[in-house]
């Protein structure tokens, strides 16, 4: 099991530590809201730090620490919350009147994220299994919505409780023999991207070979936080369409550009899209036309 400690996410000390007897078991939570899946684990740690700050400064709820006992993410990390490896059995604060008999496990997952990947479910299971072993948590796995009126942890995680239970019991289920269904032909992706955000003559492209300056109308997302965020939205939209492999770390992700702009990294995916969906020869540059096509063209049969 991979751990991130409280030190890793620069936790403030708990204001109070209460013990608990979690006889019932563990309750699964999500962050909710939009997209919570992070590409970089460092962003997960920042998100956990934010959640603790939000809880400690909460205007009405008297939180004494981050509300959750453990947090898990798509990178397969179990992140210490109220519970730590040295101090597992601490009262949680996220499940109302169940806090006296359960422990709370948070998935860094939200409504804007698509199908929870197996690694997230497995890590949730590992976290629950660990709490059973080290914090005397009972066998139940329930969801926040089982106990109060909330959508938490979302329909997809809720539907996966059995799988999480199997992982918690150390019985990894066999991989699903059926591939996940593609989005229905004719469906347009949810609009994660919005309108083209730059002037009409700007575009995303790899930076030129070293020694040349990137013209200011060329964006690449490697160093620019806004461009990076936008490209994450493009990536999400492409993934929704069934393109599974898009470089996460920016437009350019690979060795110095070869002659064929479609030969590497993110631009390769863009090129494929241009060829297969837009019917052009494809240059791998992401400008307003390609942007709109990615955003608006229905999925082909
Ligand atoms: Zn919840
Ligand atoms: Zn992570």
Q: How would you describe the overall organization of this protein?
A:
- This protein is of the alpha/beta class and 301 residues long.
- The protein folds into two domains: 2-168, Lysozyme-like, CATH 3.40.80; 203-296, no CATH class.
- The protein has seven helices and eight strands; from the N terminus they run ββαβββαβααββααα.
- The protein has helices at 41-56, 118-135, 155-159, 161-168, 225-240, 265-278, 288-296; strands at residues 2-4, 25-30, 70-72, 77-80, 102-107, 140-143, 203-204, 218-219.
- Strands 1-4-3-5-2-6 form a six-stranded mixed beta sheet, with helices on one face. The chain has a two-stranded parallel sheet with strand order 7-8.
- Strand 3 and strand 4 form a beta hairpin.
- Helix 2 crosses helix 4 (161-168).
- The protein is elongated.
- The two termini are 41 Å apart.
- The structure holds zinc ion (ZN) (2 copies).
- One zinc ion (ZN) binds at residues 29, 94, 144, 150, 152.
């Amino acid at each position: 099991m991979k751990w991130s400690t409280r030190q890793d996410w620069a936790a403030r000390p708990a204001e109070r530590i209460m013990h608990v007897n979690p006889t019932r078991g563990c309750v699964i939570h999500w962050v909710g809201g939009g997209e919570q899946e992070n590409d970089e684990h460092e962003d997960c740690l920042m998100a956990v730090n934010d959640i603790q700050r939000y809880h400690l400064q909460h205007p009405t709820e008297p939180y004494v620490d981050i509300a959750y006992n453990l947090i898990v993410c798509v990178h397969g990390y179990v992140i210490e919350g109220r519970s730590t490896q040295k101090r597992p059995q601490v009262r949680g604060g996220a499940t109302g009147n169940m806090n006296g008999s359960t422990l709370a496990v948070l998935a860094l997952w939200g409504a804007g994220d698509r199908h929870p990947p197996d690694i997230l479910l497995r890590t949730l299971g590992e976290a629950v299994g660990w709490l059973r072993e080290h914090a005397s948590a009972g066998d139940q796995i329930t969801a926040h919505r089982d106990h109060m009126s909330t959508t938490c942890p979302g329909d997809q995680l809720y539907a996966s409780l059995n799988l999480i239970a199997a992982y918690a019991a150390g019985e990894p289920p066999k991989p699903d023999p059926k591939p996940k269904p593609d989005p229905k032909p004719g469906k347009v992706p949810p609009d994660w991207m919005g309108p083209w955000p730059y002037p009409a003559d700007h575009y995303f492209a790899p930076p030129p070979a070293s020694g040349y300056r990137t013209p200011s109308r060329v964006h690449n997302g490697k160093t620019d936080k806004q461009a990076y965020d936008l490209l994450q939205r493009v990536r999400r939209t492409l993934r929704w369409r069934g393109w599974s492999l898009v470089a996460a770390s920016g437009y350019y992700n690979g060795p110095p550009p070869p002659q064929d702009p479609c030969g590497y990294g993110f631009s390769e995916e863009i090129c494929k899209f241009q060829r297969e969906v837009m019917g052009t020869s494809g240059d791998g540059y992401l400008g307003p036309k390609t942007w709109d096509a990615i955003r608006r063209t229905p999925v082909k049969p």
